[in-house]
Batch of 2 targets.
Target 1
Amino acid sequence: MNNVFVICEVDEGKIADVSLELMTKGRSLANQLKCKLEALVLGHNLKGIEKELYPYGADVIHIGDDERLDPYTTLPHTSVIVDLFKKEEPQIALLGASTFGRDLGPRVSSALQSGLTADCTSLEIGPHEDKKAGKTYENLLYQIRPAFGGNIVATIINPDCRPQMATVREGVMKKEIFDATYKGKVNKIDVDAILKPEDLVVKVIERHMEKSKVNIKNSSIIVSGGYGVGSKENFDLLFELAEVLGAEVGASRAAVDAGFAEHERQIGQTGVTVRPKLYIACGISGQIQHTAGMEESSMIIAINNDPNAPINKIADYAITGDVGEVVPKLIKFYKQNTK
Amino acid sequence: MGLNVIVLAKQVPDTRNVGKDAMKADGTVNRAALPAIFNPEDLNALEQALRLKDKYPGTTITILTMGPGRAADIIREGLYRGADNGYLLTDRAFAGSDTLATSYALSCALKKMSKIDLIIAGRQAIDGDTAQVGPQVAEKLGLPQVTYAEEVISAEGGSITIKRRLERGVETVEMPLPGVITVNASAPECRPRNAKLLMKFKHARTITERQGEAEDYIDLTADRPYLNIEEWSVNDIESDMNWLGLSGSPTKVKKIENVVFQAKEAKHLTPADEEIDELMKELIANHTIG
Ligand SMILES: Cc1cc2nc3c(=O)[nH]c(=O)nc-3n(C[C@H](O)[C@H](O)[C@H](O)COP(=O)(O)OP(=O)(O)OC[C@H]3O[C@@H](n4cnc5c(N)ncnc54)[C@H](O)[C@@H]3O)c2cc1C
Ligand SMILES: Cc1cc2nc3c(=O)[nH]c(=O)nc-3n(C[C@H](O)[C@H](O)[C@H](O)COP(=O)(O)OP(=O)(O)OC[C@H]3O[C@@H](n4cnc5c(N)ncnc54)[C@H](O)[C@@H]3O)c2cc1C
């Protein structure tokens, strides 16, 4: 009872990265609160899935394995989770801010009338004093999130309703094995006893999922391009630089919107969050929604023809010049110096 | 066969292009300087409704918005683009609502409306940025939901077929009506204002707005009822006050910090060969690259 729960997402038969990242966060919250960490996995053909979760410190893994839970649709997943949460009364429930989590989370929170905070960038435990009501609270979840297009950061709390629910985007938390030999127990959910015919009214007719080819999140060097790169052809220059440096290519939203790069390369508030060793920003102005996804890079090099571009404020090196001139020189002098 | 479609639309401050003039001296955003606009994805939602109206004659589109009095602006904007009528839900009792209290108030208003076939919301509002209201309204009404819709393919025989845009692919789903869908920015843009409709609805007003205006406008609605924008307060919907506004909101804002654009010392370089050569040597020497 009153434990920390992570609602896990299954992606091609494996636990999604964002869920493992939340398991790591959930483990540290559970340690702080001196309670257990529990995972919840719903889907079909999940045999052995618990083995992926134990090393992240799962004490209990609730598994609902039923063909009606795969592919994902909102209503059956909601019914199973609401049923379980009414019995288990978690104090905290976390899920990924993916299309899955952002479809499911609000539905579950509405059914339980428990608050939900979207897109948290940090989760902490702390006290709260409600002076008006003369009440004090210990150990609340501080759900810290940007809002207002990234121009403000709000700390949201959920004093009275449980669970305290929050979604977090992929790449925001760090995934880390807690203990490779950790063992918890499995609770098999009797899905059949919960689902009703009205849960199954939405039917998936067709599905085309593309396997992600791009792996910017795990790349230690990122060459990123913005609208200032100018064209899809000029983006090839960035790919060339990335190739010689062993880097991945990222993009700003303006570059993605303009069709210079694929959506999965988008970095920022509505793309992925990255923290590479080196981030080379080419023709990117450095709007807050972009920098929110890359400002924790260890080193930032900005290439921009505007010496006052905001990106220069967070850069370690600001090269004032044309992308088309600077990038080939980076390639040239890198090659010269590593020969 | 015509459908009765409701579009949920929110008036939002334009947070997308916070220009220099909207920045205060301390580097934070001056919200008052941002124009109030029709939430962008709600325009995508409206376009999907308009396409249904094109395809299925007899379809009516009603805009529902909750907000302060000036939110009537976006109802007019909707009328100029082809919606048939609108409701403004406005009351102090709704102030301070989180997404659950917002969804509850909207769902109470929706229950007061005559037989609804389809509710279309935007995926996400650009100020609160949560994307929670659509699914929560659906749950409060006990209706099925389809989020991330990009295209309504058909709405016939009591069910609707929708193409969804997910992170890594597309999905086609079928949902029985009535139901709720939320529409993505990747869906087609909304058509512009129609000149005839602009003329027709230019003087559409809520009762509060009419009270503040000259007599002749009040007279206008007597023979042109379509110029009346319905205004509902908390007394016009059946609701439990404990679920509304601040007291009906499980989430509380404990603290708000404005993001300050801090300057850090950058080394400024030019594209000169020596400087780039030097930079590369430095990066290789400290093992950042190579
Ligand atoms: C800094 C800050 C942070 C916040 N964080 C949270 C949070 O984490 N959790 C939370 O529960 N609340 C939060 N809120 C409150 C939330 O912004 C409001 O409840 C808001 O009214 C609705 O949420 P949204 O703007 O995110 O809308 P979304 O859920 O993003 O809106 C989705 C769609 O619902 C429809 N819709 C939304 N609002 C209305 C409306 N008023 N009228 C008609 N249609 C509408 C529109 O179609 C819209 O496109 C926060 C508020 C602030 C100021
Ligand atoms: C809710 C919300 C979420 C968002 N999420 C994201 C997100 O996740 N990621 C994101 O990136 N954006 C996001 N944005 C958009 C963001 O606000 C900016 O619009 C976007 O980051 C701008 O991209 P850009 O820097 O490539 O383009 P611009 O702002 O147009 O900048 C182009 C830059 O290139 C420079 N330039 C031009 N030509 C050259 C040249 N030849 N050589 C060198 N430099 C040149 C210019 O000086 C300029 O600085 C979001 C916005 C909102 C409202």
Target 2
Amino acid sequence: MSVNVNRYKCGYCGACVGVCPEGALELVETWIEVDNTCTGCGICAKICPVGALVVVK
Amino acid sequence: MKERYDVIVVGAGPGGSITAKTCAQGGLDVLLIEKRQEIGDPVRCAEGVGRDALKKHIAPDKRWIAAEVKGSVLIAPDGTQVKMSEDASNPKAGYTLERKVFDRALAQQAAMAGAEVMVKTRATELLRSNGKITGIKAMYMGETRDIKADIVIGADGVESKVGRWGGINTVLKPVDIETCAQFLVSNIDPGDYSKFYLGSNYAPGGYVWVFPKGEHTANVGIGILGSRSGDVRAISLIQRFVDIYMPQAKIVEIVVGGVPVSGPIKQTVSDGLILVGDAARQSDPLTGGGITNAMDAGEMAGNICIKAKEKGDYSVKTLKEYEDKWRATIGKEISKSLQVKNLLIKLSDEQLNQLAHSLDGVDVSKMALPVFLLALFKKNPKLLWELRELFK
Ligand SMILES: Cc1cc2nc3c(=O)[nH]c(=O)nc-3n(C[C@H](O)[C@H](O)[C@H](O)COP(=O)(O)OP(=O)(O)OC[C@H]3O[C@@H](n4cnc5c(N)ncnc54)[C@H](O)[C@@H]3O)c2cc1C
Ligand code: SF4
Ligand code: SF4
């Protein structure tokens, strides 16, 4: 389970990092990194203001 | 850069810079780190701020004041306008900032007070020895190094990790975050009041703000609760608003972001660790304002660091005074705001219209927010009954 970040859409605001229960996301300056603790819960994808995140099974 | 400091502040937003400045003024050795290569950029803010709250920390400077605003206008779903002033005593109630310049000015203040500043430097974890926090690991220009300190301040914003690393739960649930999108628009006449549009025709599930930002420009944004985001997104809603209500507007900048609207969280200090500003979820759940709360908290945190150094005790026992202080001030305000917000989001368009009409003939133009809410409550006790505790 993971999330896919559409980096052409992402506005690197960090909102998704703040809601991830696992701490799987990190905002590094202008891009989002996802680590292997992601459970695919989809919370980040729900709250992203631009819809740049998609859960991948 | 040295190998050790009294205090390391992670994040050079308003909260972090004021913390660092306060520590440096108290004679502490302090390092302020910021992961971005440019402090303050990209902006994730509507840049509205109350004049008096700001002046406590820094003298207004036209380099970072984009516009002066006289007060606020609330616009009900049926278009009824309710005009209030943010400060009854002065027509110049607030400012719209230029945060790119403002945030940098605050960091400069910290630097001038004696703080060291490092940009493009990202904290990646906490250092510990025998369980005790002893500093941070930081990456600068692709290289990792250890930096020691007695106290680490997490002023790392909505995406805060410092608290989590220290065992403090700062995870925001979808209902605890306002997800936002904003355009800086040109070719409009913004007037000199900040405007807030409520109701499903303007902003389904949230509200729209229009903050004047100087001649022919304004920040036009929307915030919706994270729990209502998903099928619709902030970005498409604000595009829709601009298309319908400001067809002539030209979009010259896009801003996105999340504001914590959880109200006070349970814990913001642990041994050798303090959280400040958005990292401590101290923004106002009703207005989404967090700049001056972060600055107030930063000053409180800095003062406690000075005390801790004097005592030579960096444990919760000493640092808890920070927690008590902010809860008694900022905490009280944001708890009230949370209650008002929780009620507001339940109201239908008709009920919002009813509230606006109840003020027909009442002069609210000089009322500050608390007085305004009381006036509203007196006119609509049934609708607002669950807020009665606020007015005791
Ligand atoms: C769309 C929007 C509109 C808003 N409108 C307003 C408004 O009109 N008025 C108002 O008062 N408030 C507003 N806010 C809220 C306001 O922006 C924040 O409350 C305020 O910026 C909080 O300040 P801070 O110092 O706590 O955090 P921030 O300003 O977010 O600063 C945190 C800093 O920490 C850095 N950082 C994060 N992690 C690390 C790390 N690991 N290492 C190093 N550095 C790190 C970040 O890059 C950032 O620069 C708005 C927010 C949004 C999203
Ligand atoms: S919430 Fe969306 S826009 Fe913001 S950083 Fe995450 S993926 Fe990017
Ligand atoms: S899907 Fe859930 S666990 Fe994975 S990154 Fe998003 S919020 Fe975190």
